[in-house]
Amino acid sequence: MSAVRTVTDLDPSTGALIAEVPCATAEEVRAAVARARAAAPAWAALPVEERSACLQRVSARLLEAAPELGALASREMGKPLANAVGEVEGYARFMLEELEEVAEAVAPTPFESEAAEVVLHREPLGVVAAITPWNFPVGMPLQILVPALATGNAVVFKPSEHVPLTGRRLAELLQAELPAGVLELVEGDGLTGADLVAADIDMVGFVGSRATGETIMRSAASGLKRLVLELGGKDPMLVFADADLPAAARAAVQHSLRNTGQVCCSVERVLVEASAREAFERLVLEEAASWTFGDPAAEGTRMGPLVSHAQRERVIAQVEDARARGARILLGGEVPDGAGAFYPATVVADAPEDAQVVREETFGPLVCLEGFASEEEGVRRANDTPYGLGANVWTGDSARAARVARALRAGQVGVNRYLGGAKGTPWVGARQSGFGFLGGIEGHRQFTVPKTIATARPAS
Ligand code: NAD
Q1: Pocket, ligand 1, Cβ cutoff 6 A
Q2: Pocket test for ligand 1, best of 128, 160, 187 (most atoms within 8 A of CB)
Q3: Nearest CA to ligand 1 atom 35
Q4: Sheet holding 328-331: strands in order across?
Q5: In the chain, which segments carry CATH 3.40.309.10?
Q6: For 92, what's the count of Cα atoms within 13 Å in the CB-facing half-sphere?
Q7: Along the 460 residues of the chain, how does pLDDT read in single tens digits?
Q8: Which residues belong to CATH 3.40.605.10 in the chain?
């Protein structure tokens, strides 16, 4: 008999073992999908208001469980405790807004026709696989689970192997309010995820890396499974000399280092107009110096460790590659002693255009500063990436702001601010940062298929 495969759940602050979690076998994955398939029709048949009512009760449970769930997430992936609790509370409230939008998204739409009474319905797809990352271990799953369930699908949820207990607890809170089988949990690693994609599902809702997104897309071709893929990024920030430099520097540092840089829409490159370089560099260094790392459970900690030693190795490799290619390391860049996967806030300047830190997603606490001489060069270099998640531009010239914002190839652009939309705007990864998108009326509809019913009018 072959040994059971497990995921080893480690506390990244200390290296201590939290749990060994057995991975579901392919057979167990198929059984979970079969249970979801059996539960799907009755769930789909409920009015959207009833499905929403179940999920509103889940929101209340999440708010109540926020301290406990946040502490678990913080321990498993290392984000500061206050941020982890805030994530649970924030998404528990946000899901209530999403539920209102879903009701609008699936409302039947009548169309004009003399020959027939025509109504467009939005029907659920059946069974959705939700496969999610660890960086927002409650928020990212909810972004898929809430619209998938509220639109009437059953879901099989596979959380990240880095946050298995957070994923399990989140599933329990949902299952406490949902009919049996409507939300199934499968635990495990990437191979478990692959088994789930290969199983009898109708759609994959995935948040994770571009490489895994490509693998899932290939596998989903068999059976023409629908896809929403929210992937990585290499978000540029463009700072012109006429910008409010202190505000831009604060945003550059905060959004490079937040969550120890492990955010899909982190600022990954800061391109600064040549004449403002020196002043901007000084402001960034002053700001970044206050971003010290420490125990995520301690009050006031701004940065915890990276999620794992493997993730830290990727960050070290990028910094050392940049150093070897002549970049200046203005702050940090030295690996601290100790068992945890900590890495200091690091400022890298003038890495060449072919350096890893300029080309590949870093997902670590780096502020990467580059220069540009003209608007044309700044825009060209900002767009020189296969990714297209977010971007932001800082300038005092409103005509230029409008021009550059339209020229940047990204799903979301901030002007004299970081990203952010309004209620109803979708979360979009353009180019290779995504396929399909989440949020807003159009995002929720991706968990449905349109169906037109045309009923002949009685002959008069
Ligand atoms: P990952 O791609 O390594 O893993 C994500 C999930 O996919 C995990 O649950 C993993 O077990 C599973 N998986 C791995 N291989 C698989 C396979 N072959 N088939 C099916 N499932 C498989 O990503 P990660 O390290 O967990 O997360 C970090 C990445 O997520 C970063 O690239 C980040 O930018 C991205 N991300 C994107 C968004 C967004 O909204 N665009 C949000 C958060 C994170």
Answers
A1: 131-135, 140, 158, 160-161, 189-190, 193-194, 197, 207-209, 212, 215-216, 230-233, 264, 361, 363, 389, 429, 434
A2: 160
A3: 208
A4: 328-331, 346-349, 366-372, 267-273, 235-239, 390-394, 412-415
A5: 235-415
A6: 22
A7: 568 999 999 999 999 999 999 999 999 999 999 999 999 999 999 999 999 999 999 999 999 999 999 999 999 999 999 999 999 999 999 999 999 999 999 999 999 999 999 999 999 999 999 999 999 999 999 999 999 999 999 999 999 999 999 999 999 999 999 999 999 999 999 999 999 999 999 999 999 999 999 999 999 999 999 999 999 999 999 999 999 999 999 999 999 999 999 999 999 999 999 999 999 999 999 999 999 999 999 999 999 999 999 999 999 999 999 999 999 999 999 999 999 999 999 999 999 999 999 999 999 999 999 999 999 999 999 999 999 999 999 999 999 999 999 999 999 999 999 998 899 999 999 999 999 999 999 999 999 999 999 999 988 7
A8: 6-231+429-448+451-455
Kindly report the protein residue whose alpha carbon is nearest to atom 18 of ligand 1. 194
Residues 230 and 429: beta-carbon distance below 8 Å: yes
CA 232/CA 390 separation, integer angstroms? 10
**pTM (2 decimals)?**
0.97
Judge whether 198 and 228 are in contact, CB under 8 Å. Answer: no
Phi, psi of 87 (to 5 degrees): -60, -45
CATH classification code of 6-231+429-448+451-455: 3.40.605.10
Rounded Cα distance between 194 and 196, Å, is: 5
Question: What CATH code would you report for 235-415?
Answer: 3.40.309.10
Pairing of strands 203-207, 226-230: parallel
What are 125's two structure tokens?
Answer: 């797809």
Q: Which atom of ligand 1 is nearest to the CA of 212?
A: 2
Q: Which atom of ligand 1 is nearest to the CA of 194?
A: 19
